[in-house]
Design goal:
By secondary structure, the chain is α+β, with helices and mostly antiparallel strands. The chain has helices spanning about 30-50, 60-65, 70-75, 85-95, 115-120, 165-185, 205-215, 235-240, 260-270, 275-285; strands at about 60, 80-85, 105-110, 130-140, 155-165, 190-195, 215-220, 225-235, 245, 250, 250-260. A 6-stranded antiparallel beta sheet has the order 4-5-11-8-7-6. It has a 3-stranded antiparallel beta sheet with strand order 1-3-2. Strands 9-10 form a two-stranded antiparallel sheet. A hairpin with a 4-residue loop joins strand 7 and strand 8. This is Aminoacyl-transfer RNA synthetases class-II family profile domain-containing protein. One of its GO terms (biological process) is tRNA aminoacylation for protein translation.
């Protein structure tokens, strides 16, 4: 393997990459290289588990998300895709401000998690004994505040998805936990393992109460409280709602998720600078 060189730097003092707006960032060359190297490490889990890579869709149908109770649980996070109305297009093309409400709904939303598109693509199918897939997607969430790389409008999520039996999902998540804790240790990133506190719209709702009684999502949390990865047990929820079957009947599913920008944040936090973090990540990759 050819030795990895340092990423090219921007001209000293000539260019500053500014954040275009709240929750929006441009990664400089060092952090961009760190992003790429980290995601290459995450694909090691997919390789261990035999999960081939696919590319998920850039949009999700609102009708499909409604089948999954998305709007009952997370309406406040949804980012809708819209198009300009015809009269607004004419006004804009003429250089004039359009009338109020210049956009029209399309029936599609930007993904808030990578696995939704993959699961919707399996609707009505029999996956046999089991199916594993991995994908990295850009996800979008309408948050109440944004905070550097810890909380963004748009971010990348690498997921490794398992669809099959309940026992298969448990094994998948156990191996994922072992992988993540081992990787974090080798990267020098201290993490704790704790039940997630997902931002349900209705904290008194049935899904939120069930999560409190029987957590199905656990997060790996860095020392500053940033959740950088998670393991998620879906039970047979997606199998039932989407008609996904396995040899034993309705399929169970579970996924492992890595927030790539959040890992960039956590490794820089642990090592002081992007350059030192990149050196550690590259040492781990070998």
């Amino acid at each position: 393997m050819a030795p990895r060189t340092a990423p090219p730097a921007l001209p000293d003092g000539a260019v500053t990459l500014q954040d275009p707006g709240p929750g929006l960032v441009v990664l400089d060359p060092a952090r961009a290289a760190l992003f790429q190297e980290l995601d290459a490490l995450f694909t090691g889990l997919a390789e261990q588990l035999g999960a081939p890579a696919v590319v998920g869709p850039p949009l999700l149908p609102a009708e499909g998300l409604a089948r999954l109770d998305y709007f009952r649980n997370f309406p406040h996070l949804a980012v809708s895709a819209a198009r300009f109305a015809e009269d607004a297009v004419e006004e804009l093309a003429a250089g004039r401000a359009p009338a109020e409400q210049p956009v029209r709904p399309t029936g599609y939303l930007l993904p808030s998690a990578t696995c939704y598109g993959l699961l919707l693509a399996l609707a009505g199918q029999d996956v046999g004994a089991e199916l594993r897939l991995t994908a990295v997607g850009r996800c979008f969430r309408n948050e109440d505040h944004y905070d550097g790389l810890r909380r963004l409008w748009g971010f990348h999520m690498r997921e490794v998805l398992h669809v099959g039996s309940a026992d298969g999902v448990r094994e998948h998540l156990a191996r994922s936990r072992e992988f993540i804790e081992g990787l974090a240790d080798r990267l020098g990133v201290a993490v704790s393992y704790q039940p997630a506190n997902d931002p349900f719209y209705d904290k008194s709702g049935s899904r939120a109460k069930l999560m409190a009684l029987d957590p199905v999502k656990y997060e790996f949390v860095a020392v500053d409280g940033t959740a950088i990865a998670s393991v998620n047990r879906h039970r047979n929820f997606f199998g039932e709602r989407l008609g996904i079957r396995t040899e034993g009947g309705t399929a169970h599913s579970g996924c492992t998720a890595f927030g790539v920008e959040r890992w960039v944040h956590a490794t820089v936090l642990a090592h002081g600078t992007p350059e030192l973090a990149l050196r550690r990540v590259r040492d781990v990759r070998g």
